[in-house]
Specification:
Layout (H helix, E strand, L loop, with lengths): L1 E6 L3 H10 L5 E8 L2 H8 L5 E5 L5 H8 L4 E4 L6 H11 L2 E4 L12 H22 L3 E4 L7 H9 L5 E11 L2 E2 L9 H8 L3 E5 L2 E5 L6 E4 L7 E6 L4 H7 L1 H4 L5 E8 H11 L8 E3 L2 E3 L1 H7 L8 H10 L1 E3 L2 E11 L2 E10 L3 H8 L3 H18 L7 E4 L5 H12 L4 E8 L1
Parallel strand pairs: 1-2, 1-4, 2-3, 4-5, 5-6, 6-19, 7-13
Antiparallel strand pairs: 7-17, 8-16, 9-10, 11-12, 12-13, 14-15, 17-18, 18-20
Helix pairs in contact: 1-14, 3-4, 6-15, 14-15
């Protein structure tokens, strides 16, 4: 029986906790956050839940809660990641997060620090987790996470792989002003940062909102949608692991589009996502902070989501697609994989969750499920693209039971 600590009771953490509550191999789920209202609301609907308040800026507080736990699920903002990871090593617990930590390297260019930080985590933190006999699994939401597993499954159809395009379009739009269904702070921060791609065998930086691609997806009713470069973990993880796990792929891109992109692009172009203080009419302001203060938080409570749905939706669509180009039996082909999951209305009817919570939270839960059922055998630090073929198959089998599936077509070129 496993004892789990879930840090962060927002959209992702609360979804993981609710699903773990149904797992027979879980005996207790400690739900901790600085927001005691969110914690109490979550624990009130759990059978195995225990509430706790934590200041995650203090490693000692995390360690106290984590003592005796088997797994720490980190659903906190990125800047707490290293504290939580260090605490996991100290108490000898397995570790899982939804995305890589904030910068832990020291480079002249902050954008390079993030890539170097991931290399450090693979190497140094990996060695420390291995010495502790434990596993750290990073990047385990829907993207990164679910999409990385599905990319691994996709390239099995190829003998050699040249290019992987990962494309996500989020078209859920409420009549209420609500540009993001997850943390606006994280969303807008990503919109203002350089993106990354793996191109010609090396990690490069690209400008946000650049290099647009337009596609017609059947799941979008054949509508043409445009996606652009966007800061995400996948090209970095998969690029660093290209030889071992992705058949020597030379190019990896992540493209993103939808309501959030449409909202943020003009703000970025106008300089309103800048974090640099400036003086306007005699007052010093940070444009990013002004914008963020006017963006509503993501809904995370059942009644909030219900109220938004009752007010009406403009659209309830989306797509998550992987295109893998390479050779099969000596011929050039494209493997076209489409991931399907319940939309907002269906997600809420099934589980009281938004589509974002359903996809990202349950994508993350499936990795937690692998931990509690002893399916993760590796020791050290791995990212979600580094599972074994057997682990990939198990994940996909469990995902199908949640109606998260993938359809793949081999397209001759």
């Amino acid at each position: 029986m496993k004892k789990i600590l879930v840090l962060g009771t927002g959209a992702q953490g609360s979804t993981v906790a609710q699903r773990l509550d149904e797992e027979p191999n879980v005996s207790e789920i400690i739900c901790a956050d600085y927001d005691t209202k969110a914690v109490d609301s979550l624990v009130g609907i759990l059978k195995k839940g225990k509430a706790a308040k934590v200041d995650a800026s203090k490693k000692e507080e995390i360690m106290k809660l984590a003592a005796g736990t088997d797994l720490i699920v980190n659903a906190l903002p990125l800047d707490y990641g290293i504290n939580v990871m260090e605490a996991a090593i100290e108490v000898k617990a397995d570790y899982q997060d939804f995305a890589a930590c904030e910068n832990i390297a020291h480079c002249e260019d902050p954008a390079d620090e993030w890539v170097e930080g991931i290399k450090i985590m693979y190497r140094d933190h990996g060695e420390r987790f291995k010495k502790a006999g434990k596993t750290a699994l990073i990047g385990t939401g829907s993207a990164p996470g679910l999409i990385c597993v599905m990319a691994r499954k996709t390239i099995r159809e190829l003998d050699t792989c040249d290019t992987i395009n990962m494309m996500v379009y989020e078209g859920v739009e409420a009549k209420r002003f609500l540009p993001f269904w997850w943390s606006p702070l994280v969303a807008l921060s990503d919109m203002n940062e350089d993106a990354y791609a793996f191109e010609n065998g090396r990690i490069i930086r690209t400008r946000p909102f650049s290099k647009p691609v337009t596609r017609q997806f059947p799941e979008m009713g054949g509508e043409s949608v445009t996606m652009v470069e966007h800061a995400h973990d996948e090209p970095v993880y998969m690029g660093l692991n290209s030889e071992k796990f992705f058949k020597g792929v030379k190019n990896i891109y992540f493209k993103y589009g939808g309501v959030g992109i449409d909202f943020a692009r003009p703000l970025y172009r106008a300089g309103l996502l800048s974090r640099e203080e400036e003086e306007i009419k005699g007052r010093k302001v940070v444009p990013f902070d002004v914008v963020l203060s006017h963006v509503p938080p993501a809904p995370k409570y059942h009644d909030e989501v219900k109220e938004i749905i009752n007010e009406g939706l403009i659209s309830d669509t989306g797509a998550m697609v992987i295109e893998a180009y390479g050779k099969k039996d000596g011929k050039n082909v494209m493997i076209d994989s489409h991931i399907f999951a319940p939309g907002l209305l269906d997600s809420f009817e099934r589980s009281g969750l938004s589509a974002e919570m359903y996809m990202t939270g349950q994508g993350g839960f499936l990795f937690s499920k692998m931990f509690v059922n002893d399916k993760i055998k590796q020791k050290g630090l791995i990212s979600s693209d580094m599972l074994t073929d057997e682990q990939v198959d198990y994940y996909i089998e469990c995902a199908a039971k949640l109606d998260i599936t993938m359809e793949t077509e081999i397209v001759p070129l």
